[in-house]
Amino acid sequence: MSVKTLCLGALSFEDGTGYDIKKLFEAAFSHFHSASYGSIYPALRQLEADGLVSCRVEPGERHPDRKLFSLTEAGRAALIEDLTRLPAAEAIRSDFLVLLFFAHLLPTEALAAKLDEIERYYRQELDYLEGIADACEHTAGIAYTIEQGIRVYRSKLQLLTERRAALLADHRKLPKEWSAACSPSD
Amino acid sequence: MSVKTLCLGALSFEDGTGYDIKKLFEAAFSHFHSASYGSIYPALRQLEADGLVSCRVEPGERHPDRKLFSLTEAGRAALIEDLTRLPAAEAIRSDFLVLLFFAHLLPTEALAAKLDEIERYYRQELDYLEGIADACEHTAGIAYTIEQGIRVYRSKLQLLTERRAALLADHRKLPKEWSAACSPSD
DNA sequence: TCGAACATGTAAAAGGTTACATGATTAC
DNA sequence: GTAATCATGTAACCTTTTACATGTTCGA
């Protein structure tokens, strides 16, 4: 699912500029997706060329050169097709878990600093999500995305609290014959 | 944290080939990172050029041209530096949550199919992780990565079970003035 | 014998981020 | 007056995936 699909989705709620779309992503998608201007603006241009969105320029209203994009009928169809066709997978890239996997190599203080860093990050995300959870009436789907974020961050924070001491105490021990004894699907 | 760092990490446990490294990633990293041969082999070549790994060829033992890589002292130092320096962030790209965010556009049957698909995926990952959790003695860090995976997948499965009916019943309702009433950090 | 696992690699393409470049408006 | 927000865009770079290309060995 690429930025183009996300832009179509954003415009399915209401017309907006590239800037508006970026704001929506930051406000609503922050815990499960992200996109930069460098991908949004080219995507919108491409979508317009493909007839999936239309564009009207609103000059002078407040800001110059405000390009308001609207989803066309073809765009709505393409969005539904993308959502239906593309696998609903999750691509997780957690540098934090990678770090823990190799934690036996780190000095204790460096590991402690990382644990603090990730804990602050989790708390910040959790606070934000708890704040928006009841802010307005969401669709069941949107409420789900928020609730999953809340539960997952709570789980992660709890595990972090439970295991902090064990991680700091234990992190120098090396596993014996990891690949021989533990490879599971061989 | 790039594939190069991951390769250094894999070799910190024991010497191995590109193929071995890929297997370790599949066995141990599957729920928080992934890497293909197309990135691993070039990474190893680059690491060798940089003196961070060394390579000895084992011909004829069982398979021809088996290139065994070892971490050098410089490589171990570079790994520790990477792990310490790079932010321990998490980059999550959940096409499933994106789909739910726009679920109001989908026919009920298409949504139901997606819910089934993701549930199967979660269960499969959870079963796998539960299987390896007690398979051998892990470092505290490795045990943590497994336990976090288990708890997160359990949370996700539970939410999915709780909300399935609500999602299927409710998914056509549109949020009123999402951007005006709900944008949180404005 | 046939498919799975072992084993290495390349090239093109896709997809995205970062940094840069610009300038008006609004709130303090 | 000055910092944040609004607003658009490009270009270079980075990383990774996908698809291709090749060949052996082992177990059923």
Shape of chain A: elongated
What's the number of extended β-strand segments of chain A? 3
Protein structure class of chain A: mainly alpha
Output mean pLDDT of chain A: 90
Give the strand order, joined by hyphens, for the main sheet of chain A: 1-2
N-to-C SSE string of chain A, H for helix and E for strand:
HHHEEHEHHHH
**Biggest protein-protein contact in the assembly:** A-B, 88 and 87 residues
Helix content of chain A: 55-70%
User: Which percent band covers the strand fraction of chain A?
Assistant: 5-15%
How would a crystallographer describe the biggest sheet of chain A?
A: 2 strands, antiparallel
Cα gyration radius of chain A (Å): 22 Å
Quaternary state of this entry equals homodimer
Uncertain runs of chain A: 173-186
User: What's the end-to-end separation of chain A, in Å?
Assistant: 32 Å
Count the DSSP helices of chain A. 8
Features:
homodimer; 63% helix; 9% strand; mainly alpha; 8 helices; two-stranded antiparallel sheet; disordered C terminus; elongated; 186 residues; DNA-binding
Give an overview in words:
- The structure is a homodimer of 186-residue chains.
- By secondary structure, chain A is mainly α.
- In chain A, 63% of the residues lie in helices and 9% in strands.
- The first copy, chain A, has helices spanning 3-13, 18-28, 37-49, 73-85, 95-101, 108-133, 140-170, 178-182, and strands at 53-58, 66-71, 90-94.
- Chain A has a two-stranded antiparallel sheet with strand order 1-2.
- Chains A and B meet through α1, α2, α4, β3 and α5 of A and α1, α2, α4, β3 and α5 of B.
- The structure holds a DNA duplex (28 and 28 nucleotides).
